[in-house]
Design a protein that fits this description.
With 96 residues, the protein is mainly alpha-helical. The protein folds into 2 domains: 63 residues; 30 residues, no CATH class. The chain contains 5 helices and no strands.
Length: 96
């Protein structure tokens, strides 16, 4: 599922760049046809999309690297009954 999300983000970024750079450049349909107000709008749209793509890629990268720390794993094992209270206290002392 993570790969599909990442692929969607890259596809969207490439299509947006091609769309904005290809048809809204000098002499295109952007500022020259619609006036300066729409040019500013497209600039804001472009930078907003660019920042969104960068933040999304950073978040996807960080979420995949997230690891559980040992104390949480130990608590889960004790809660599920895998280890006894004696083993839990001994392991907890070793972790400190």
């Amino acid at each position: 599922m993570e790969e599909n999300k990442n692929l969607f983000v890259w596809f969207f970024a490439i299509v947006a760049l091609l769309f904005l750079l290809g048809s809204f450049g000098m002499g295109g349909y952007g500022m020259m046809s619609f006036g300066m107000g729409f040019g500013f709008f497209w600039m804001l749209l472009f930078w907003g999309a660019f920042i969104w793509v960068v933040v999304t890629l950073i978040n996807v990268g960080q979420s995949s690297k997230k690891e559980e720390d040992s104390s949480n794993i130990l608590k889960k094992r004790y809660a599920s009954g895998e280890i006894s209270k004696k083993q839990y206290t001994e392991m907890k002392k070793e972790l400190k």
